[in-house]
């Protein structure tokens, strides 16, 4: 069974890579773009749709606000990209917003950013995969009943791909990302060209009206303002994942900062062009989309069971025809890239978790690298969280979107505020006049970014809080408290284990009392007695518990007949317990003196099949578990290899999770001259 599992693992994940091979996993810009920027590039596939969905709540009359809302989103995208260019140059070691905020605003503020981003990475996977499934269903409506199952399956596949390593997953994701970008740009260019030539494409939903949610035709000025603000906050989904490049600077090839900044700029430019083109084409094609298909007028047959096609699907059908190759190409590329866009989170979440674990805010297991030098534990944790969320919300984009982007703008705001303080410190220390001018300009960019993103954060919080964003806030708060508690625990343990008086800790015990536990007089027991003899304790005795009187007499008789010169002590157990009498006796031995050490030798079987563990060693496990809590007691397992274990003796041990760690090996492979 273990061998079969190892074969399956090698097929899914690939061969084990040595730690020295980490340089081979560094990414060139052409692969870094799909790895770190697939989320913001793919977000344009549903950002326009979210704007139109919100504005349609007031009816078709308010769709004229869409260009202005889109323009505000584009301006915000430019500010955020320029701001994060400063981050990758100032902090090339990675960590992104968390590192910036922790360094400049303090650890507590840094944890706010970390908690927000971790929650948002989970939401990125959930929303991206759910949106991808939406586009598949738009092309193949018969799959609607399998929405949740498809979404969870895609998350599992993404996790498996990412367990193979960053570089390999980058190769797999590069083609779909570039095909999606090419397809969308071609669709927008074709549609806009047709419009210029007087043959504007018309969406299938153009013939429908939309019933206003309020039931009234006119909205007050305040209501219109709130509607526009809500549309803007929903359109800001186009910015999700922008910070991932700043988190992953160490994954780039040298020069890391310059390559990361270039990739960030290219990503921002492509995203702006695609988002602007889709929005313009949607308005020209008169796309009318409602959150509920039954709100369309005239009514749609079976509206409760028939989901409305996505904006991308309607535009592709209008430009290329609803059954043409271009339509299916756009749908396939969009669905694939939306699912693969979750890869941004599958890179960002493990990297950030690793940094937090290194700083003792998360369990240390998240800092270890797996067989393929990826942070496997972080990948698996993200997959479980996102899969559970998709299952709970039935992979509904409309339900999940309200939990989204809050964390992103929290990190945007605090990181830009941290960068302002960073540049203030740099300017205070004094630099050359030419550099001072550059630093003043950088500080101004970050100050603008902090102001704008703080305003957006307020808008997002105000418009989405009651619709589900409060759950994301609650999750971030719980995570913040948990990370503080983990850090407190690690700090307390480190303080407790700190060697303040090495001489006192190195003093040997004044007396060693060795106890060999005996259940039967067989070869494992004799080996344990021989090993205990070899340690030369001050006192050596064998210990058994008399549960059955006849068995106790037989053991005593055989002990005498063997002529064993080790005294055998029998403990009475009228209630047929084994663990409690042993622990009580061993505890009493430790009271002989403050520096008395008690060594307990326990014979154990080494088996070759997993099911044999269920048949053996159960009493030994219970006794060891209890004795570990007794001060001054050392528990020594003395193995006896059964015949079934011989076939595994020469097998290479399987790589355990976390067996390959970050950094250089602790011990050199060759002797070092001193």
Structure description:
With 674 residues, the protein is of the alpha/beta class. 60% of the residues lie in helices and 7% in strands. The chain is built from 23 helices and 9 strands. The strands form 3 sheets. Strands 6-5-4-7-8 form a 5-stranded parallel beta sheet, with helices on both faces. Strand 7, helix 23 and strand 8 form a beta-alpha-beta unit. Helix 7 runs parallel beside helix 10. The longest helix has 33 residues. The chain is elongated, with a radius of gyration of 32 Å. The two termini are 47 Å apart.
Fold blueprint:
Blueprint lengths: L1 H12 L15 H27 L10 H25 L5 H10 L1 H33 L7 H17 L2 H31 L12 E2 L10 H15 L8 H4 L8 H29 L11 E2 L13 H10 L4 H16 L1 H17 L9 E2 L6 H17 L4 H4 L5 H24 L3 H32 L4 H29 L4 H4 L5 E7 L5 H12 L4 E8 L2 H14 L5 E5 L6 H11 L6 E11 L11 H10 L5 E9 L18 E2 L13
Parallel strand pairs: 4-5, 4-7, 5-6, 7-8
Antiparallel strand pairs: 1-2, 3-9
Helix pairs in contact: 2-7, 2-8, 2-10, 2-12, 2-13, 3-8, 3-10, 3-16, 3-17, 4-5, 4-16, 5-6, 5-12, 5-13, 5-14, 5-16, 5-18, 6-13, 6-14, 7-10, 7-12, 8-17, 11-12, 13-14, 16-17, 22-23
Q: Into which percent range does the helicity of residues fall?
A: 55-70%
The overall pLDDT average reads: 82
Number of E strands: 9
Approximate shape:
elongated
Low-confidence stretches: 654-674
Give me the Rg, rounded.
32 Å
Structural class by secondary-structure content: alpha/beta
């Amino acid at each position: 069974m273990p061998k079969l599992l190892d074969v399956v693992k090698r097929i899914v994940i690939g061969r084990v890579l040595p730690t020295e091979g980490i340089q081979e996993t560094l990414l060139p810009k052409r692969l870094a773009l799909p790895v770190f920027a697939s989320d913001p590039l793919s977000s344009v596939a549903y950002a326009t749709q979210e704007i139109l969905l919100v504005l349609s709540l007031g009816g078709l009359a308010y769709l004229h606000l869409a260009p202005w809302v889109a323009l505000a989103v584009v301006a915000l995208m430019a500010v955020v990209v320029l701001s994060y260019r400063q981050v990758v140059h100032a902090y090339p070691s990675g960590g992104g917003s968390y590192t910036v905020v922790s360094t400049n605003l303090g650890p507590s503020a840094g944890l706010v950013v970390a908690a927000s981003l971790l929650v948002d990475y989970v939401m990125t996977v959930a929303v991206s995969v759910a949106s991808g499934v939406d586009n598949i269903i738009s092309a193949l409506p018969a799959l609607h009943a399998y929405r949740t199952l498809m979404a969870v399956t895609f998350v599992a596949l993404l996790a498996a791909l990412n367990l193979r390593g960053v570089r390999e997953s980058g190769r797999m994701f590069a083609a779909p990302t570039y095909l999606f970008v090419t397809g969308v740009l071609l669709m927008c260019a074709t549609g806009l060209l047709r419009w210029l030539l007087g043959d504007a494409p018309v969406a299938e939903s153009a013939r429908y009206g939309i019933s206003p949610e309020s039931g009234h035709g006119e909205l007050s000025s305040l209501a219109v303002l709130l509607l526009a603000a809500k549309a803007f906050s929903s359109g800001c989904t186009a910015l999700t994942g922008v910070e991932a490049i700043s988190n992953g600077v160490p994954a780039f090839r040298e020069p890391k900062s310059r390559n990361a900044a270039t990739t960030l700029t290219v990503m921002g430019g492509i995203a702006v062009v695609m988002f602007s083109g889709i929005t313009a084409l949607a308005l020209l094609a008169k796309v009318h989309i409602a959150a509920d298909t039954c709100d369309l007028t005239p009514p749609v047959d079976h509206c409760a069971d028939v989901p409305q096609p996505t904006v991308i699907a309607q535009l592709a059908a209008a430009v290329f025809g609803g059954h043409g190759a271009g339509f299916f190409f756009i749908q396939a590329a969009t669905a694939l890239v939306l699912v693969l866009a979750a890869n941004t989170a599958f890179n960002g979440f493990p990297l950030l978790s690793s940094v937090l674990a290194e700083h003792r805010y998360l369990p240390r297991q998240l800092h270890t690298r797996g067989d393929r030098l990826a942070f496997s534990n972080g990948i698996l944790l993200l997959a479980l969280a996102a899969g559970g969320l998709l299952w709970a919300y039935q992979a509904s984009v409309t339900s999940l979107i309200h939990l989204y982007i809050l964390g992103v703008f929290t990190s945007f705001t605090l990181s830009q505020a941290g960068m302002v303080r960073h540049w203030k410190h740099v300017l205070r220390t004094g630099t050359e006049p030419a550099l001072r001018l550059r630093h003043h300009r950088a500080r101004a960019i970050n100050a603008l970014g902090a102001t704008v993103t703080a305003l957006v954060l307020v808008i997002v919080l105000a418009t989405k809080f009651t619709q589900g964003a409060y759950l994301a806030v609650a999750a971030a708060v719980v995570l913040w408290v948990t990370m503080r508690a983990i850090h407190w625990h690690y700090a307390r343990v480190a303080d407790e284990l700190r060697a303040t008086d090495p001489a006192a800790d190195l003093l040997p015990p004044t007396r060693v009392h060795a106890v060999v536990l005996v259940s039967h007089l067989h070869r494992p027991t004799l080996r344990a007695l021989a090993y205990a003899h070899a340690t030369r304790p001050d006192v050596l005795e064998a210990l058994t518990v008399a549960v059955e009187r006849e068995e106790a007499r037989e053991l005593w008789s055989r002990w005498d007949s063997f002529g064993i010169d080790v005294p055998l002590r029998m403990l009475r157990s009228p209630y047929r317990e084994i663990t409690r009498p042993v622990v009580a006796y061993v505890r009493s031995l430790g009271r002989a003196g403050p520096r008395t050490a008690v060594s307990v030798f326990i014979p154990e079987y080494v088996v070759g099949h997993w099911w044999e563990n269920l048949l053996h060693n159960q009493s030994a496990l219970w006794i060891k578990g209890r004795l570990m809590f007794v001060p001054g007691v050392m528990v020594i397992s003395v193995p006896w290899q059964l015949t079934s274990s011989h076939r595994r003796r020469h097998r290479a041990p399987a790589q355990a999770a976390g067996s390959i760690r970050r950094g250089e090996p602790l011990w050199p492979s060759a002797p070092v001259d001193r």
